[in-house]
Amino acid sequence: MARGEIADIPKDQLTGPLRRGEVKKHVAAIHISGKLSLLQRKLSNVLLLNAYDTLTTATRHQIDARTLCMMIGYNSNDIETLKAALRGLAETVAEWDMLDAEGQQEWGVSAMLSYARLRGGVCEYAYSPALAEKLNDPKVFALINLNIQRRFNSGHALALYENCYRFVRTGSTGWWSIDLFRRLMGVADSPYYDEFKHLNAKIIKPAVAEVNKTSNIIVTPDLRKMGRTVTEIRFLIQVNPQLSILDLDDGEGLRNTDTYARLRGLGASDRLARQWIAEYGQGHVQEKLDYVAGQSDVRNAVGYLTRILAEGAPASEFRSETPAKPLTGRARRLEIIRDLAAARTPTQRDADKRLFVARLDGAARDDFERHGWMSALNAEAIAAFWRDLAPEAFEAD
């Protein structure tokens, strides 16, 4: 959720917010005070994604600290940096000013995180009830795809993307005063950016260029002047046809499919069900669902389905609870990797894959996307990755 303004993060079950006509009049102007680094912005988004399914039903949320570090893209042993980033979120204020369901003006303020703590390798954190309610509102927030987020190298560019993406359905952010825009970009406290020519040259133009090159939308700045002074700015938004595939389905279509209904009936969460369909395709998921349905001795259907989908291998490879005979060499190593991956939570599995695939390109990347951790072309790199993540598992290997 971190972002130039908290407003652009999640929404309705990870679905894209601004999709109905009413959204235009209900979209809230929620922004945060102070500056957020690129790391803090990414951190807030990952924390929000991790908590989203239970945002309004759980008072606190947890995520493996090492996984959290990997998803954000920094050294998982650098706990001091993580502490500093969490401290920054707890000290940053989110403010909203919007119309409520009855048409009454509502103003509110809250810390982005009400608390955070690290203990036993786990990061525990919470949102204030009022902020959690806003973050859970599909008319207020648009969920940011972490696959797109990781492509950004500039905090200002990510802030611009976050503040524009929630308006993708309406095609324009609407007019912002230059003072508000500076706040959204985190430069309101710098006198240097009081002059528009500096703001334009150092913040707007570079950020627009990175958003248009990196993300699934294309933004175009539009200025409003009083005399020769620029007083307001808005951004016109359109889908980037070359990168739109990176975006997640807004949920409207997926929720009406039989595959989605079967996954939910099996016990999968809304987010997980849509993620699986988007990542593996309805046909592949249906095939695995049919296989699981034909097994009479599966105790945890969601966990079992998670295993066979995550590895990208035929379901039959995972049916035997005990190997027919002891495995050695490469076969044993593959078994270790398979079991390690299966033991991870959905959030951790997603982080593992994103972290590993970022190191690949060309044929190696294609092979991993087809075969997952069983990719023969990447066997050595995969083994090295998991040895670094869980060295104890390979002690006898």
From TrEMBL:
It comes from Ketogulonicigenium vulgare (strain WSH-001). Residues 23-164 form the Initiator Rep protein WH1 domain. Keywords: Plasmid. Belongs to the initiator RepB protein family. GO terms for molecular function: DNA-directed DNA polymerase activity. It comes from the Bacteria. Coiled coil: none annotated. This is Initiator RepB protein. GO terms for biological process: DNA replication initiation. The keyword S-adenosyl-L-methionine does not apply. The keyword Acetylation does not apply. Transmembrane segments: none annotated. InterPro entries: Initiator_Rep_WH1, WH-like_DNA-bd_sf, WH_DNA-bd_sf.
